[in-house]
Design goal:
Blueprint (H helix, E strand, L loop, with lengths): L3 H4 L4 H39 L9 H13 L3 H17 L1 H8 L5 H10 L6 H17 L5 H15 L15 E6 L5 E6 L2 H15 L10 H14 L32 H5 L17 H8 L22 H11 L15 E4 L14 E4 L1 H9 L3 E4 L5 E4 L5 E4 L27 H4 L10 H28 L13
Helix pairs in contact: 2-3, 2-4, 3-4, 4-5, 5-7, 6-8, 7-8, 9-10
Length: 481
Amino acid sequence: MFEYYYASRSTPESAALLDRVREAGRTEAQAAAERLAAVGELFVLRCRDSGERQDWAIDTWEAVAAQVAAALQCSVAMGSSYLRYAMAMRDRLPEVGKVFQAGDIDYRAFQTIVFRTDLITDAEVLARVDARLAVLVSRRPSLTRGGLAAAVDQVVAKVDRDAVRRAAKAAHDRYLDVVDDGAGIAWVEGKVFATAGNALDRRLDELAATVCAADPRSRKQRRADALGALAAGTDRLVCGCGRADCAAGAAVPKSNVVIHVIAEQATVKGTGSTPGVVPGVEGLIPAELIAELATSARLAPLSWPAQAPEAGYTPSAKLAEFVRCRDLTCRAPGCDCPATDCDIDHTIPFAAGGATHPSNLKCLCRLHHLLKTFWGWRDQQLPDGTVIWTLPDGHTYVTTPGSALLFPSLCVPTGDVPAPAPTTERCGERTAMMPLRTRTRAQNRAHRIATERQHNRRARLTTQAAQTGPAPPDDDEPPPF
């Protein structure tokens, strides 16, 4: 007799806990489905009120995605993802959606089904697939994600062989990712052509060898630093020996690429402990790493702007730099677009008497700038840079400058802003125009699907011809289930 036999015996308490786990999972799935249902209804409502605005650069889809993102405190890209699955549940796969709403499948399973049926263009075929999959997942709820994907592909292949999502060839899978780890270091991984990989490998060796013999770094560290030198367009590394008469010389920049790192002066000198930040990047850069980076970086002290507002509409370079360092990212709720990629926006429009002053300026990415101008997003800015947003649905959201925790001195009001002078003209009505798309969102989607279907068809016919000779005309009706 083994001891663990007794430990594995079921008890009323363990059965009750498993029931709680099972019920919590079902409730979680139902809540996720209800979230999508509400998102879909919101989109239909906005389309009814405003139209789809298909030719606008920021169309109704983007506007709704941004509102969803603000409500869920996530990125606009994630809001758009929720909207995509919401409309799939509403329009493309209503029967599978009912299973999802009942809590019989979870969000990941629903995502898998949506993705693997995305290339079906015939409404009648899609309805048949939807009904068949609803029965399948109801009868086999314990399928793994891989098993579910295979089952969906089998159903799709029976009625529309060109709609099966096929694994791409190795060459089509090449990629390169740079992922920040939140501690001042980034992971670089990818898959490239062998020729490019060999060339990169040799170039890193060449750059790593451009320092003098007194450089304290290991070869691996110098190769890692060489990637940064390569990105900056320099022809050699900055030597770490610290000697003024170093034979290796100084690296000469050949690139306009600039990465901004914000840190206190004491940290840069190596005497402080406050970490630094990179605008738009999650996580902090440790103080010791800041001090090391400072030995080979161009340093630019940040100066405070004058207390009085500037006279013109466009802020000076000094004022714009201050606002970007204060905000760090776009100031819209949920947006982490780096401030260096944002517009400098007047909260109270300049034409309406708004001052060109830090207390009336903030960073907005182009998307949120257009949402403010054309989609009814309203904002109020406090002297310390806090922004209070009121969205078209009436809900309010508060955002604080990204530097508020680490560098609170940047958020101290720099002077009183005069009240705006009354005016009867609005800059938005006079000159602002929404940029237009060259192709609508629906046209882009149709083109993507048609391209992938054509690729699948060519690959399938080529395989058939290689195995059995020329393929017969592909005009037969799809077989029934």
